[in-house]
Design brief:
Helix content: 40-55%
Largest sheet: 7 strands, mixed
Shape: elongated
CATH class of one domain: Alpha Beta
Number of helices: 25
Oligomer: single chain
């Protein structure tokens, strides 16, 4: 969190204790903005952090600190610029506001006892209790008035209590002061509960690490680790920094960062996140990011920025409350004056009712209704690897009509995998072994995929000699005394015409969107290997979940039409292929014309489309520029996270609507009972406090949010080579293209005439909607 300045000043940062509701933010911004030399004041209610630009040597922080204390808050300077969690919370009974509750409670109890012993002095005892308890409230009210915030809850409270004493309702004034203190304490407890999310994130990273130096291990602070350092992570330890494994293999629990519940296998060359838990063998890591820039720190920075930014609903309510409170005070004044002056009413009765109206009119619950829900929604998403960068994104997600997906690395794994091996001479294992040997010196993605397939299938890879390459066509080498080549079908055709049956097999595999390479020996072709970037395991279920939610999914990709149509047909999603970044922008524009649209991508070429969409969502393993451009990120790299984000948004919006209904409903109810004379002062303040507590508790329910998209149950079936995530016999509504083991007769696509199942909604070849 940083405050803006003109480049000639400094940025001062404070942790501020005592901010219990979003109205505190406005009080601080208004007060500090009136100090000469202070600019760009930023206050984050969710984290309790304050930052501002200080221009000139005269601003050393002392004047600011004095002003903050006068408003009833406690500032603590923060020297470092790294993201900071809220301060360690003290037990609620040790809070200053808890002491105030105890003090005003003792005053009220003492006044009650005095009234029983000396009834004639009861009024004086209650007046004393009310005035003494009111002193800190009145002091804050005066400070706020001088700082430009005359219509605060403290002002309403002071006016109501003093007015009650003036009309002889001293006992109720004392009760009101006590209940007000109780309400502030409850807000403090609730705010502390909401702030624990970021504190939990900070605690994920250990404070120390074992660094290798000159052949020995030394214990150092995590903040002292530098890029390139080698650290040891023992079984059971948390990873101290983002890094790459240089030695060892293990399973890491990444649930605290990505929300992924299953430990992830890691080996040499794999990247790991700070805060992950090493569940297996010892690992040696090379640090790739400094402490201030690791994954946890970046998440904290994004969450802090998200919780400090205001959602559209919150901005509207802020504008509404700016005139609501003075209007409420004007109405209360009319209630006091009009009936006695025009209708002959009793001054004492109508003054009492006007004072009750003042307390009921307090806007705390209304102002809190939206930011409390937004903060809880963002925290709930972060716990599950769904990172949101602001309340505006959280609100917009629930309104999207379409979701556009990039293909490679988003709907698909992002790396080719061997899908078919055709042996013409020998066994499939022999074809794979010889091809892997020839490709062993290449860094091409297809070469890595062939080598990975050999390792995963336990195939021994022989040594290769005299390795060479024909640029863009083939790789050659001597294996076991024979010269072999692995190349494209075109290269194989140049070496000699492919047999008709083999050419047909190549064409069939390529029609399925697969890349085919030919293993060539001195006597001709020895086998085929087909590779394809396969859909992610949860992609089909995620697309189906979006359809059930009434959201239209579409794929926008720069890949060729054949490969794109194969993936689209498997997932049941409409597709636009061979799009350059400008083409994706145009497609997003067309979708936006029909309603809000979300874009999901992971690459640098996706950044313009992510920025142009109503909401941009980046896959967590993608390029940094995509993560920075997007409004949200899926840290767990699960496509199902898109549907979960939409579900979280809709749940949060419903929570906001409930909060607003509670806040306004209670005020409307007690307004009516006040005008009818059925509401006492203590009931009025209790109604306001009760509404605030109800709104806060309702918002905190979001922390228990459970996504509607769940891992598939046991017994799910596969059809046509991919998993549909549900059991046979279920309605085709849960599968976008109805290919769930059905034996329905095939029909031809009206667009490309390719055969499809009768229940298919999208063509498995061209990806277009089935035409009659």
């Amino acid at each position: 969190m940083a405050a803006a300045n003109d480049g000639q000043g400094r940025t001062l940062r404070y942790r501020v204790e005592g901010m219990d509701c979003p109205s505190c933010v406005g009080k601080l911004q208004t007060a500090l903005g009136r100090i000469d030399g202070v600019s760009g004041v930023e206050v984050n209610f969710a984290t309790g952090l304050l930052a501002f630009g200080a221009q000139g040597a005269a601003i050393d922080g002392r004047a600011v600190e004095e002003k903050i204390r006068a408003l009833g808050f406690t500032p603590t300077a923060i020297d470092d610029a790294a993201p900071s969690a809220p301060a360690d919370a003290r037990p609620w009974w040790r809070e200053r506001k808890a002491q105030q509750v105890g003090f005003t409670g003792l005053l009220l109890a003492a006044a009650f006892v005095a009234a029983q012993i000396v009834p004639a002095e009861a009024e004086g005892a209650y007046i004393a209790a009310a005035l003494i308890g009111l002193v800190p409230v009145a002091r804050r009210a005066l400070a706020l008035i001088r700082s430009g915030s005359p219509f605060s809850i403290e002002t309403l409270m002071a006016v109501a209590a003093i007015g009650a004493i003036a009309i002889g309702a001293a006992s109720e004034a004392a009760v009101v002061v006590f209940l007000f203190a109780v309400g502030e304490l409850l807000e403090t407890v609730a705010a502390g509960r909401a702030r624990q999310g970021i504190k939990a994130l900070v605690s994920l990273v250990p404070r120390t690490a074992q660094r290798e130096a000159d052949g020995r291990l030394e214990m150092v602070a995590v903040d002292d680790l530098a890029i390139g350092d080698i650290v040891l992570v023992r079984p059971g330890d948390r990873v101290p920094a983002d890094g790459t494994i240089v030695a060892g293999a293990s399973e890491l629990d990444e649930a605290p960062i990505t929300g992924e519940s299953v430990p992830v296998a890691k080996a040499a060359g794999d990247a790991v996140y700070a805060g992950s838990i090493n569940a297996g063998g010892a690992l040696r890591l090379r640090v790739t990011r400094a402490a201030a820039d690791n994954t946890i720190a970046r998440i904290i920075q994004m969450v802090e920025a998200a919780q400090s930014s205001k959602a559209p609903t919150a901005r509207f309510i802020d504008r509404f409350s700016a005139w609501y409170t003075p209007a409420a005070m004007a109405v209360a004044a009319l209630v006091v004056a009009v009936p006695p002056l025009l209708l002959g009413g009793d001054w004492t009765v109508w003054t009492y009712r006007g004072l009750s109206l003042l307390l009921i009119a307090c806007p705390c619950a209304l102002v809190l209704s939206t930011p409390a829900a937004i903060a809880s929604g963002i925290a709930a998403g972060t716990r599950r690897g769904l990172l949101l960068k602001g309340g505006a994104a959280l609100e917009m997600l629930g309104k999207v009509k379409a979701v556009a997906f990039d293909k490679t690395g988003t709907l698909t794994v992002g790396r080719p995998q061997v899908t078919d091996i055709v042996a013409l001479d020998g066994s499939e294992a022999a074809v794979l072994a010889e091809a892997a040997a020839v490709e062993s010196g290449s860094s091409h993605p297809l070469a890595r995929a062939i080598l990975d397939a050999a390792v995963s299938r336990g195939v021994a890879v022989p040594a290769v000699a005299e390795a060479s390459a024909v640029a863009g066509k083939a790789v050659l080498g001597r294996v076991g005394g024979a010269t072999l080549a692995v190349g494209s079908p075109r290269y194989a055709a140049e070496r000699g015409k492919l047999p008709a049956g083999l050419a047909d097999r190549v064409a069939a595999l390529e029609a399925e969107g697969k890349t085919v390479v030919v293993l060539l020996g001195e006597a001709g072709p020895r086998g085929l290997i087909a590779l394809r970037d396969e859909p992610r395991e949860d992609a089909a279920a995620a697309v189906a979940a979006l359809r059930r939610a009434g959201v239209r999914p579409v794929m926008l990709t720069g890949d060729n039409r054949r490969a794109a149509a194969a993936v689209a047909g498997a997932l049941g999603i409409a597709v636009e292929a061979e799009l350059l970044p400008g083409g994706k922008l145009a497609a997003i524009g067309k979708l936006k014309a029909q309603g809000p649209v979300a874009m999901v991508g992971d690459g640098i070429n996706d950044a313009p489309a992510l920025a142009a969409a109503s909401v941009g969502i980046a896959m967590g393993g993608g390029a940094d520029v995509a993560l920075e451009t997007a409004d949200a990120a899926l840290l767990n790299n699960r496509v199902a996270g898109v549907a979960e984000l939409i579900g979280l948004s809709r749940t949060t919006l419903a929570n906001i609507h409930q909060n607003i209904a509670v806040a306004l409903g209670l005020k409307g109810l007690f307004l009516a009972t006040t005008l009818l004379g059925a509401t006492s002062l203590w009931m009025a303040i209790l109604a306001d406090t009760g509404a605030t507590v109800l709104v806060t508790l309702n918002a905190l329910r979001l922390l228990r949010f459970l996504p509607a998209v769940r891992p598939k149950p046991a017994g799910t079936v596969q059809a046509h080579g991919h998993d549909h995530g549900h059991t046979a016999g279920e309605s085709d509504d849960c599968c976008a293209h109805g290919a769930c083991g059905s034996t329905a007769a095939s029909v031809a696509c009206g667009a490309c005439r390719a055969p499809n199942q009768a229940s298919a909604r999208f063509c498995s070849q061209c990806g277009q909607a089935m035409a009659a």
